[in-house]
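Now for one record.
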Amino acid sequence: MVATHGGFCFGVKRAVDIAFKAVKNSEPRPMFTLGPLIHNPQVVEQLEREGIGVIQSLSEIGGGKGDPVVIIRSHGVPKGTLKEAKERGIEILDATCPFVKRAQSIVESLAGEGYLILVLGDEFHPEVQALLSYGDGNATIWDGTLSQGVKKVAMVSQTTQPLENLKRAAREVVESLSRDLAEFRVFNTICESTTTRQNECASLARKADLMIVVGGANSANTGRLAEIARSIQPRTYHIETEDQLDPGWFEGIKRIAVTAGASTPDWIIERVVARIVEKTGGSIRYGAGN
């Protein structure tokens, strides 16, 4: 069984298309992504072969490097980074996912209205770091505690968080209400694609004897798919490529399910499925089915 909603989401596909079109349609010039464009090492390697390098900071662009172009990755970057690029005259191609952009806009607006913004997500994830910056000092990671004396609070989420996590966090805020808190607003900034693929992953895991989740080892959304699958089907394996498949996994297994993270290209998924068919002699069916 192969997930129908695995692989590139809209935002990732858009970012990859922007990058490849940029290198194809522009005159030869230095081109970089600020951080890996997406959390998939195979795609990053493809981009490097096309001449798009990876830098971690604008400070890595020094003099004598022509007229550089910097591509903003799908996760977005802190507000100050865009300001620095503008001040230095660096051309920016913004490939930030539109759903991430929406969350940034919400945080920026709430900060201007005097809210304390609680951000649900991985503190060290680049998307979350960017979100915090749009709070202009009024945004913080939700850690389960709420300071006394706060009158206006709002909550947003990293776009790849499970919806249940946002519901639980919102309940925690309500349960910690103090007399000072007059207003609490929750914004569902989770990408619909995230919820769809997580639900399908759970459905597949319930029907499978073994689950394969394909995607970058450092991909947050792929890791969450693996967590969801493993909570239902303990025989769950998170791999990046078909070469990591162990034929021993398939012994005595009748139903194998495959899904993939939002930053996993179709060609990698196809190779994984083809290798499984080769090793097991099975057939391919798409979707969770019955």
The radius of gyration is 21 Å.
